[in-house]
Design a protein that fits this description.
Length: 491
Amino acid sequence: GIPEDDPRNAAVVADNVGDNVGDVAGMGADLFESYVESIIATMTLAVVATAMGLVGDSETAWLIPMLIAAGGILASIIGCFMVRVGESVEMGKLLGALRRGTLTASVLTAVFAFLVIYFLGASIGLFWAMLSGLVAGVLLGESTSYFTSYEFKPTRGIAQACTSGAGATIIQGFAVGMLSCWPAVLLIAGAIFAAFYFGSFYGVALAAAGMLSTLGVTLATDAYGPVADNAGGITTMTGLPPEVRERTDALDSLGNTTAATGKGFAIGAAALNSLGLILSFAIVTGIVSLSGGTMSVSDPEAFSLLSAPILVGLLLGAMMPPVFCAMTMKSVGKATEAIIDEVRKQWREIPGIMEGTSKPLYGKVVDICTGTALREMMVPSIMTIIAPVVVGVVLGKFALAGFLIGAVVTGFVFAIVLNNAGGAWDNAKKFIESGQLGGKGSEAHKAGVVGDTAGDPMKDTAGPSLNIMLKLMSVISLMLAPVLINFTGIL
């Protein structure tokens, strides 16, 4: 075999390009979508804030999320300036520098949000609702960092399992991923409970807007990952001294953690954001009605956990995330097979590649990746768009509400497990490569590579794509809401 990032491998450039496409462009689009939709959901629920006396008028309810977002942009710029490191490449110091930037932006945003809510004459409860989302976002990042950084016990446990072979590595990594969902679930559940207590439906949507208000510094931190990864690849491809690769490896390992942290943040934001859109759907369709400053379910018997449409909707919604994940991971498998065949074909047919006297056709592999990705995403995308329409038209608005809730519950947990397991496997391999447990080339390292290979489609494809699925289904349902107001479904 040949080393990782060796220029004789025709797929090495596609690897670097893919990091930028997935972790910068893709994650940026995902978070921007959440950012905009959280503001839209909050503005849609302005009628709730007005009816319950949380704000003086609808205009104030519309202004609050936009002003908080504006303050978050300024706070993120200041937070980015707080990220400073010296010559040290210790993981703890690097993580501390990034944490300082995030916390600075969060504190400044919280202060700005308090001033906005106070001077607009809104209920101070809205500040606590917004703060619950902001704090949940910061703590969600810390939780992800704990489960995916090799500074901590979970990832080191996976590295230790690598000494027992690939099977133990997969089992231990998946166990860490599943275990990592409990702090995330508690944080999001706590944020939802606090936001609803202080601001009702409007407060829940405002919590999502609060979580995403520091998007600037979060996205910058997430984009750091592929930059460091590509720097390490370029170091190997250009034959720079070993000490340069040592530094880029340390930065790359931190990049894996920041990428996992950014994805964890995006998953939490998608869950809160989807819930805000579902609550908007409930108001628009008349499932929940407002009268005299109080909210009530318009038809308690129909919107009950004991009703058949709700139960069927919940089950169908819970089914969507695993089916969607299966489709995306199978797509990665097909692309992988095509790329491996192409690389081996070039080694056979182009003389001089292995000797370094001629270059592989890097562009050919990039074309295969791009074409396969576009083709394979058609079916999951169509399924995501059609499923809520079919459920709403056939079973009615109550079943569709259950469908969306079921999808959010299972999709959120699935996404956290896949993201954190993949990130932990990656950093377990990096921990071994740093010279621990036998270092590069050892049996433990070979098992770590297997875990990393299995984790890549989980953390880079299946996990992040669930965010888009959850939000898209919620948006499609909200667009369908006016049609379903007086429509009970075909069945």
